[in-house]
Amino acid sequence: MTLYLTDTMSPEEIKLAKESGVVCAVKLYPAGATTNSQDGVTDLFGKCLPVLEEMMKQNMPLLMSNRTDPAWKYSKRHEDNKFRFTCNFCDKVVTGSVYRVKLHLVGGYPDVTSCPNCPEPVKEEIRAFIYLLQQQSHLNTLFSIGIPFFKEGYSHTTTVFQYSKERYPVCYIQSFLRSSDGDPFSRRAIVSAVTSGNKRFFLGTDSAPHDRRKKECSCGCAGIFNAFVALSVYTKVFEEAGAVDKLEAFTSFNGPDFYGLPRNKTKVKLIRSPWKVPESVPYASGEIVPMFAGETLEWLPTLV
């Protein structure tokens, strides 16, 4: 379980959360940034510094998106020319914006000289940041298409699967990624990263079970209920990448190891057995439409 950080949270709450043995982290939502974030943080260091200090004492992570460009750490901008940077690893002078510094560090671009000395962990950090930029920039594409309707050729970043049903508002989430094969940070690159066995990557789902009526309306809520099918979909991704042997660590080990939590002892068995996703999941006040509603998936998860 995680806590929702607010301007009024006290350090004492962090102590109690740690002592509970149930709360493992605190989530930062800037006020107004997403659904139900109206009570989020308005001034992180001005109003939440005592809480952050207590979190450090309790070794409790703060969950947030990294919006600080890491390229500044690995280069120096020239004082006499803000469009010239010197790489910390090879002393190469890169001309242009700081974005070109990132391309220089990552390497593989024909119009930017690659850094021969950039450590692999730094490359991974830069790639992850560029991925975040990709998500943010493609929100513009999302709004140009028109909410709540979508066109074929856009994918959910959550599962890196293309879900091409036209005019399907249930699919609306706030992070989309182009499927362009020419883009090194497209879906294909993300699949390569998460199936590589790198411990920095672990399972996550959007898991937003909004009522159907709140999705299929003129101003639908962002989020998709995909926890229902996540294991089946991830297994398919890893199978196609020839990396099924790395699936268990991705789904069950890397996450708890990162947060310093014990690994779950319960086991799940995945059977190659086609099953049909329900068109909807009923609950007391209505129904929720899951991702891939009505579709047939190849892998069936069962408890051992």
UniProtKB/TrEMBL annotation:
This is Uncharacterized protein. It comes from Rhododendron molle. It comes from the Eukaryota.
